[in-house]
Write a structure and sequence with these properties.
By secondary structure, the chain is α/β, with parallel strands linked by helices. It has a single domain, classed as HprK N-terminal domain-like (Udp-n-acetylmuramoylalanyl-d-glutamate--2,6- Diaminopimelate Ligase, Chain: A, domain 1). Helix content is 36%, strand content 18%. Helix 2 links the parallel strand 2 and strand 3. The longest helix is centred in the last third of the chain and has 10 residues.
Length: 120
């Protein structure tokens, strides 16, 4: 899915431009960055309400080219600066995480699929 298709599906806006063109293959919606790192896939969109710089660092480690902040949560300047520095796109969406993920899925962006059961 292209960035333009994501923006249209989730009625989102760009806060930090991606420095390159990406074909997003899947999305991961989570506020737990440890879960994001467990279930990373190439060209994944990270959907989260966590707007601190840790979300950008996690996206970098997971090789996610962009982060979509949901619930209309505008990230602090520190987060946007880090995203620009690291070359990670930042999007802003006014929907809840559940609704944003549903809209993206309905538009054709895949999730991570069925995951293994993890006993803790």
């Amino acid at each position: 899915m292209t960035l333009d298709e994501i923006l249209e599906a989730a009625d989102a806006e760009v806060l930090v431009e991606l420095p390159f063109t990406v074909d997003f293959e899947s999305a991961c919606a989570s506020d737990l960055m440890s879960d994001v790192l467990l279930f990373t896939k190439p060209n994944m969109l990270l959907v989260t309400g966590l707007t601190n710089p840790q979300a950008i660092r996690t996206a970098d480690m997971a090789e996610a080219p962009a982060v979509m902040f949901v619930r209309g949560k505008y990230p602090p300047a520190e987060t946007l600066s880090l995203a620009e520095e690291m070359g990670i796109g930042v999007l802003l969406c006014r929907y809840t995480m559940f609704e944003a993920a549903g809209l993206l899925y309905a538009a054709g962006l895949k999730g991570l699929g069925q995951l293994p059961i993890i006993r803790q």
